[in-house]
Design brief:
InterPro entries: DUF3551. It comes from Pseudorhodoplanes sinuspersici. Keywords: Signal. It holds the Pfam family DUF3551. This protein has about 90 residues and is of the alpha+beta class. It has a domain at about 15-55. Helix content is about 40%, strand content about 15%. The protein has a three-stranded antiparallel β-sheet, covered by helices on one side. β1 and β2 form a beta hairpin. The longest helix is centred in the N-terminal third of the chain and has 18 residues, at about 1-20. The chain starts with a helix and ends in an 8-residue tail after the last helix.
C-alpha cells in the first residue's frame, strides 16, 4: 500500500513538473518567459549565458494537486439532527 501511495505521489509530482514553464534570465538583465520545459530553457541560455527560473508571470492558476482535487470532490454534508429538523421558527418572525 505504501508503494502505491509513493508511486501516485511521484507521478503527480512529475506531471506537475512537466507542466511548469520557465523563464530564461540572461546576464544582460533581460529575460524570456513561457518556455515550456527546463531543457528548452537551458538550450535558450546556452552559449549566451544566463540561468533558468520558474515562470511565475503566467496568469493561469496552477492546477490543483491530487489531494486538493479529492477534497473538492467530497460532498458537502452538514451535520444535522432529526430532532432539530422540525423546530419551528421563533415567534414574531
Amino acid at each position: 500500500m505504501r508503494a502505491l501511495i509513493f508511486l501516485s505521489a511521484l507521478l503527480a509530482f512529475s506531471q506537475a513538473a512537466n507542466a511548469q514553464k520557465y523563464c530564461a534570465r540572461f546576464y544582460d538583465d533581460t529575460q524570456t518567459c513561457g518556455i515550456p520545459s527546463l531543457r528548452d530553457c537551458e538550450q535558450t541560455v546556452s552559449g549566451v549565458g544566463g540561468d533558468c527560473i520558474i515562470d511565475d508571470t503566467g496568469d493561469v492558476a496552477p492546477r490543483p494537486g491530487p489531494i486538493q482535487r479529492w477534497i473538492e470532490a467530497q460532498p458537502d454534508t452538514k451535520p444535522s439532527s432529526p430532532s432539530l429538523d422540525d423546530v419551528p421558527p421563533p415567534p414574531g418572525n
